[in-house]
Each structure stands twice: as structure tokens, then as C-alpha cells.
Amino acid sequence: MKKIKFLLCGLGIACIVTGCGRTVELTEEENEIITEYAVGLLLKYDKYYNNHLVELTEETDTAETQPEEEEPLPEENNDTEETEVADTPVVDVAEEEPQASSIEEFYGIEGIGFQYSGYELQNEYPQVTEDSTELAFAMEATSGMKLLVLKFQVVSLNGVDTELNMMNYGTKVRVSVNGESPKSALSTMLLNDLQTYKGIIGPAGPVELAAVVEVPDGTNVESLSIILRNDTDKATLVLQ
How far apart are CA 224 and CA 240, in angstroms? Predict the structure, then answer.
């Protein structure tokens, strides 16, 4: 088809040049101009030539505009972190804090010592006798119960009179009997109540203070602990 079109184009040009049987001689320059014109017409109407250009153009545009594929980022290896977290022991700070080993240490009292001296199981405390004329207050156990009285000897450690006011420390006292749930010490009007005592501790001799709780009648005391608690601290002291 290309050759046919080229020949037709050539014949057309020849007809134009020759006219009605007359021969026109052309210069070399005029021949080149006519030849270039004829080739231009041929390329203009050649569908194969146009399609080829379009296909090349589309392929070029697609290659130029297609974005480059991004390389995937390497996956983070979390195995090490997970292992480290799993292997890290959980530390309970509260469990590692040392507890006070004595009443004076918990209260922060200097120059005075507290020594547990035993307990009593009573129906009433203090026991009223004929000589108990100076007793200002006494308490009785309720029916089916006994008063468990824990006794503490308080002494001066430096040999001088030292004022002691237990109410200043805002401490709650509880007692655990035989490992059972602690019971709050009774609030009393006893002058020697461990929670409310106020007086002078000196070299003249020890002062006996007491903490009292009620227990069922017939309780066999095998172990005792006293629990001290204030707004910031807590301590459990094993008495026996």
C-alpha cells in the first residue's frame, strides 16, 4: 500500500507538472521541493506511520509517569523487646520496705523503750479489789466473751524524765490472735491505755500500758501479733 500511494502521488504531481501533454523542464532545486512535498503528503496520510508514532508516544509517557515502587521498610523486630519485658521481674516496692521492729521505732520515739510482758484473759480489767480505791475506770467483758489484755512495760532509756503523749501520733492499734483477722483495740478510758496514755516516763521505774480486745470465751491463745497503722505507715510486730 505504501508503494501504491507513493506512485499515485507521483502520478498526480506529474499530471500537475505536465498539464495537457506539454513537457515542463524543472530545475534540480524545483525537483527537490516537489519531492519533499510529495513525501510529506505520503507520511501525513499513512495510517501505519501515524499509529507507530502514537504507540511509541504512549509507551514513553507511561514509562515516564509511572511512579517507582517504594521499597518496603524492614519490619521491626519486637521479639527482643517482648522478651526483655517478659523477663523483667515485677518488684513490689512496698514489700521490700523494711518494717519497724519495735513500737518505739514505729512511733519514732527517742529515749523510751516498749517491752511486751505478756497477756491476761479477764472478765474485767483492771480487777477491782478492796485496795482499788484509786481506780477511775474499769471495764467488763460482754456475755460469752473475755477481755484479752496485752501488757507493755515502758521504760526510760536515758535515765531522765521524758514526757510521753501517745495521742499525738494518731496511730490505730489492732491485734491478731492465732493468725486470725486483726481486731481493733477497744477505745477505753483507762489511764494506762496504750493508744491514749499521757504521762512522764522516768528512771523511777517502768510504767505498764495495755491494749485490750475481746475474744470468745474459751479462746486458747497460741500466737499474738500487734498491728500499728497511721496515715503513711504500717507495721506488724509478732509478740509471741
Answer: 5
